[in-house]
Here is the input.
Amino acid sequence: MRAARDKRETMLSLVEKGRGGELASGDYVPAAFFIHFDRAFHYGQPAVKKHLEYFRYTGMDFVKIQYERTFPPIADIRRPSDWARMPSYKLDFYQPVLDAVQGLVREAKRDALVLMTLYSPFMCAGHTTSLELLTAHLQEDSEAVRKGLVAITDSLMGFVRECIRLGVDGFYASTQGGEAGRFSDPQVFTRHVKPFDLVLMEEINQACPFNILHVCDYNGPYSDLSAYVDYPGHVVNCNPQLTSGKLSWAEVARMFGRPCMGGLDRHGIIATGSTRQVRRAVAAVLEEATFPFILGADCTLPADTRWENIRAAVSAAHDGR
Here is the structure.
């Protein structure tokens, strides 16, 4: 019966609890995990059907739409000054994704929150060249690179506003750039990466009832998360393992002042173990979690992760402490 609760109400009430309501309840813990589907299911109606199949099979508590329309590489950007050539893609560029958004809002919103994945301007700039070249350009001539980041942010803002118009409940907003050792001068991140993140995140925070801030460690670990504590977002999803040691979930929750999402290593038991091992791992996470809490992974799971393992993790979370 607990697992049959209205998923929308469950997730929205979690935000209210995080604002000062009941913090100790662990009888029903929401859960969600994400994977990239095969290329045949990236866009349009095939994406709608695969997302719904995955959502219903796993029993997770909201729908998170994978974003697969990465910015195309531009070989002509070789020097910082070349970022002035960065185009601002219009809505037709995003249309294959928007078709999936429209279909999933229509089919799933009555049952659960529908969130869209949003990559940061820094991440999209990295897709356009490479993270290594982007990092070097920002350190060499940040002001020149900002011209490209302005164009990217303008493009993403159009995408964000169209997703909102189509009816998404929020975004899973992924950010990078503050990893340990990324920039020799941390002010490069503070002055030339973070402001573009905040333009988009403040927009979605004003318009949507449920947004997740994802501090992504896909390209490297963090030595400190303090640069992100003033980012908007109703929930924070991050890896508490820093270069200096592992934070407790209580420490993460206090630092960000909001509920946390995570607990399982994306390359760990959920990806490699048996369903029995997965359930034991979830029980261990819930013993350490600070409530309200959403069980999840630190990032997207490997594409070959068995759906049975994901369903076992979600079910174990729903069984509570």
User: Anything to note?
Assistant: Confidence is low (pLDDT under 50) at residues 20-24. The longest helix spans residues 142-166.
